[in-house]
Design a protein that fits this description.
mainly alpha; 7% strand; single chain
Length: 121
């Protein structure tokens, strides 16, 4: 019986140790939970960075489309310029032909003393 009374304080000390171990385990589990929350927030941050990168790719793609459109417009203008030169040359030729045709009509007509018309060029 004396031995039994001697064991009771040891059992109590073991129970206190077990309780303190449970408290330490709970504290460590709380730290692990906080680490999981930090990891989840980091994953969310990485996901938002991926979204930002995707948006930047969309912007880059739209800029490439705009640059291509500008190049196409420049190419069309490059094709139109020689056509305009041809039109200007054609108009110059037509103008020259009209000036040649106008000269006979711009001749002064005078009347001779005999009543016959004559052209003075």
């Amino acid at each position: 019986m004396v031995f039994h009374f001697f064991l009771l304080p040891c059992k109590a000390k073991l129970m206190i140790c077990k309780a303190s171990m449970i408290v330490i385990k709970a504290f460590l589990m709380g730290i692990k939970a906080k680490l999981f929350i930090v990891k989840a927030s980091l994953i969310g941050f990485k996901a938002s960075l991926i979204v930002v990168k995707a948006k930047l790719f969309v912007v880059k793609a739209s800029l490439i489309v705009i640059k291509t459109f500008v190049i196409v417009i420049k190419a069309k203008l490059f094709v139109i310029k020689p056509f305009l030169i041809v039109i200007k040359t054609f108009l110059f030729v037509v103008k020259a032909k009209l000036s040649i045709v106008k000269k006979p009509f711009s001749a002064k007509i005078s009347i001779d003393f005999h009543g016959i018309y004559s052209d003075k060029i």
